[in-house]
């Protein structure tokens, strides 16, 4: 979808239970994730090992996650909560909206 090399593809589903285990979420926020998110899929990993991109001083690799929504809107607290819960998502840079999907890019300082 983003035109990235096949060597960068991960295509691994992130279980919501893992999110809940990795972050302390208020019950209301947990319910929002359950109600508003259909799935979270780790789509790509851009790194020296997958794309021949050397690690920089600040950014070692880039992870791309697809967040599939159950509805047309998403509470503004949900994506930051997901970023906090996924260990590699150290820096939140934003999202690109295409159709019914929201793409999130995380820059990892591993």
How would you sum up this structure, described in words?
- The chain has one domain (6-108).
- The protein has four helices and five strands, in the order E-H-H-E-H-E-H-E-E.
- It has helices at residues 16-22, 27-36, 48-51, 78-85, and strands spanning 9-14, 37-46, 61-69, 91-98, 101-108.
- Strands 1-2-3-5-4 form a five-stranded antiparallel β-sheet.
- Strand 4 (91-98) and strand 5 form a beta hairpin.
- The longest helix is centred in the first third of the chain and has 10 residues, at 27-36.
- The protein is globular.
- It starts with 8 loop residues before the first strand and ends with a strand.
Task: Provide a short characterization of the protein structure.
The chain has 110 residues and is of the alpha+beta class. The protein is globular and about 40 Å long.
The helix fraction, in percent, is 25-40%
| Radius of gyration (Å) | 14 Å
Query: What is the mean predicted local confidence, pLDDT?
Result: 78
The total count of helices amounts to 4
Which sequence of SSEs, written as H and E, runs from N to C? EHHEHEHEE
Give the N-to-C terminal Cα separation: 26 Å
Shape label: globular
Strand order of the largest sheet: 1-2-3-5-4
| Beta-strand residue fraction | 35-45%
Low-confidence stretches: 90-96
Number of domains: 1
Helix/strand-derived class?
A: alpha+beta
């Amino acid at each position: 979808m983003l035109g990235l090399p096949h060597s960068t593809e991960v295509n691994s589903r992130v279980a919501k239970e893992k999110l809940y285990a990795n972050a302390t979420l208020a019950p209301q926020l947990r319910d929002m994730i359950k109600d508003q998110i259909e799935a979270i899929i780790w789509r790509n990993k851009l790194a020296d090992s997958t794309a021949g991109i050397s690690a920089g001083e600040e950014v070692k690799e880039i992870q791309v996650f697809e967040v599939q929504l159950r509805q047309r809107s998403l509470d503004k607290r949900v994506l930051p909560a997901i970023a906090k819960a996924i260990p590699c998502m150290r820096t939140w840079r934003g999202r690109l909206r295409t159709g019914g999907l929201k793409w999130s890019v995380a820059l990892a300082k591993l």
